[in-house]
Amino acid sequence: MLFAEGDAITDGPLTGSFYDRFSWPTLTPDGVARWTSDYAATSGGPVVGGALFSDSTAQDVLLKTGDSVAAGLTIDAGFLSSNLAWSQLGSNYLTTVSVVASEEVVILNGQAVSVAGGGLLRENDPIPAQAGGLANETWALGSLYEVNEAGDWASSASVRLAGEFNTTADLIVVNGVIRYRDGDVIDGHTLSGLPSDISLNDRGDVAFVWDNKVFLNDKIIAQVGDSVDTNGDGAGDVVINNLFDVDLTNLPSAEGDGSPLLYLGARVTGSRKVILRNTPVTLAGDYNGDGVVNAADYTVWRDTEGTSLLLGADGDGDNTVNTADYGVWSAAYGTSVAPSIAIPEPLAVALLAALLTPLACRR
Fold first, then answer.
1. Cα angle for residues 283, 288, 293 (degrees, 5° grid)
2. Of the candidates 297, 286, 27, 336, which has an alpha carbon nearest to the alpha carbon of residue 305?
């Protein structure tokens, strides 16, 4: 055990304070723990603040009560938030904090995010027209948060009319602009209700689950009623009954349209919870998944050479992007495969595993 509620904070700027209520920790790919915790002046005493910690040894503090997040705005004692998302390599984080008057504001790497047209993504602030707001609309924050290594971010939110308590529409906000709104028609479907998941990757793709449908870059790619092939015979043998999670990777798929490899959490016939995925790349050297080995694939290799984390260009499967993978690309240069043809049934995803518990939460 590393820490328990009531234990002394023994290092970092809060040395001499005591841990109180914890969040679940998250880990970076190199094993550094990050977590939030309230803290007190005495063991078991009243909470006086909250902080975002990093590194269980050094107990570094990334963000804490009293820090300034924008001009005239400091974090109040009610800081602790479960709305915490990290980018794939742990370079960026997105969260919410309480500020003056206990209003919540969205924070990227310690500073309040700006929205198009000026202002912050803060509870009850007006939504500028440039951000997609209509007359008399104000922000109400949501519970879904995502950020990638480039610092692009997305969150769920709602609309609240000024002076009113109830919300009137649900939203997905991407980089300070309303990207999707309750009532929008996307790929022939009118959005209603609440989004249940959002995912970004470092390629710039955006996916989300809304109305039991999975959308990727404005296209429906899976929905309730779709058939799934679980035994590999090419025919659908179960049907999706519920969709609740989507995770984008930085790896290409073999769909022939440049789309990324992705994973879905679903419940199928018989109430089984499963993880589904689309088709991985099978053409050697095709590192961007567009069905052709060309200069664009070299760019993917060049930009990730030396990494063991972003493996879209790991052509030989040794879990490192290196000169051997350049050789795979060079030897295959100019080859191509015919794009796959999308068909409605069975769904073009493959069953990975049946689970007894829901997908592990990324946040």
1. 50
2. 297
Task: Round to whole Å and give the CA distance between 90 and 11.
Answer: 22
Nearest to 208 by CA among 230, 235, 181: 181
Q: Which two tokens stand for residue 125?
A: 């602030």
Q: Which of 125, 119, 73 is nearest to 98 (CA)?
A: 73
Token couple for 327: 């050789």
Residue 229, both tokens: 């092939």
Single-letter amino acid, residue 234: G
The answer to whether the bond into 346 is cis (omega within 30° of 0) is yes
Looking at residue 329, the DSSP 8-state letter turns out to be H
Average pLDDT over residues 132-145: 95
Q: What is the pLDDT of residues 158-172, one digit of tens each?
A: 999 998 889 999 999
Tokens coding 128? 């500028």
Q: Which helix (H) or strand (E) holds 331?
A: helix 323-332
Task: Evaluate whether 94 touches 107 at the Cβ level (below 8 Å).
Answer: yes
Burial class of residue 285 (count of CB atoms within 10 Å of its CB; 0-12, 13-18, 19+): buried
- Hey, what amino acid is at 143? S
Q: How far apart are CA 227 and CA 138, in angstroms?
A: 41
Q: Which residues, other chains included, contact 157 with Cβ-Cβ below 8 Å and sequence gap of 6+?
A: 121, 139, 140, 141, 142, 170, 171, 172, 173, 178
Give dist(CA 126, CA 132) in Å, integer: 11
Query: Any idea what DSSP says for residue 101?
Result: G
The per-residue pLDDT for range 343-352, each reduced to its tens digit, is: 233 344 444 4
Q: Are 158 and 171 in contact (CB under 8 A)?
A: yes
User: How far is it, in rounded angstroms, from Cα 81 to Cα 328?
Assistant: 46
The 10s digit of each residue's pLDDT in 236-250 is: 788 999 999 999 987
Q: How would you list the strands of the sheet with 111-112, edge to edge?
A: 84-86, 93-98, 104-108, 111-112
Rounded to whole angstroms, the Cα distance separating 113 from 161 reads 21
